[in-house]
Amino acid sequence: VKVKIPFGNKYLDAIFSVPEKKPRYGVILTHGAGGDMNFPHLVSLAVYLASHGVLCLRFTCKGLNVAYRTKAFKAVVEYLKLSDDYKVSGVFLAGRSMGSRAAASVIRQLSQGDDDDGFIQGLVCLSYPLHRPKLHSKLRDEDLLLIRCPVLFVSGSADEMCEKQLLEGVVSQMKAPKKVHWIDKANHGMAVKGRTADDVMEEINAQVFSWLRENVPLEHK
Which band of pLDDT confidence, cut at 50, 70 and 90, is reported for residue 84? Predict the structure, then answer.
């Protein structure tokens, strides 16, 4: 179901992937610095989640400014929260690459404000860009260290923007419940020599769904 979500004086393009049965919870999903909501990995995950009973709302927000992307993500969270068509008890924020930075930033901002009502249940980071390629001295970890809700990282062990030991170091300092799933030999784009994209996505989708199930409050299951 295609929708347009108000954002300032414009609209964000978005698509709901709706399960057959009324979903209790949802996932909001966005893309990285390039591409849009029709990036194959996002489409694959959205279809998978909807087929397993999870509402998925994916949206496009162009722009390389994380603060701008974060504002857009907040507008989408607000839209879903107030939606009459899709009433969910809680939502997980998910993003690929830069989209996961924006998601982390939204969660940190909302959890520090007075309006933290428990609507956001957790964070899924696909290919979190912990640092620029080869620039290991400056880590983008400030939001991660302040988040308290459960976090799942799915990263490639050969990701040039997320050195394995560096992410594990950050994760060890995080206060939030967290899990890291490494896709063996995958790069930042989740490409693995000798494996098809579909095969890699199956692994990612299954990991995300099983983690969601572990982190949904019992009365929502």
Answer: confident
Closest C-alpha among 66, 68, 47, 67 to residue 58: 47
pLDDT tens readout for residues 5-54: 999 899 999 999 999 988 889 999 999 998 899 999 999 999 999 999 99
CB under 8 A, 24+ apart: contacts of 6-10: 6/75, 6/79, 7/61, 7/71, 7/72, 7/75, 8/71, 8/75
Task: Label residue 148 exposed, middle or buried (CB < 10 Å: 0-12, 13-18, 19+).
Answer: middle
pTM of this structure: 0.94
Domain map of the chain by residue range?
Answer: 2-43+59-215
Round to whole Å and give the CA distance between 43 and 205.
Answer: 11
- Tell the CATH topology of 2-43+59-215: Rossmann fold (3.40.50)
> What is the rounded CA–CA span in Å between residue 70 and residue 110?
11
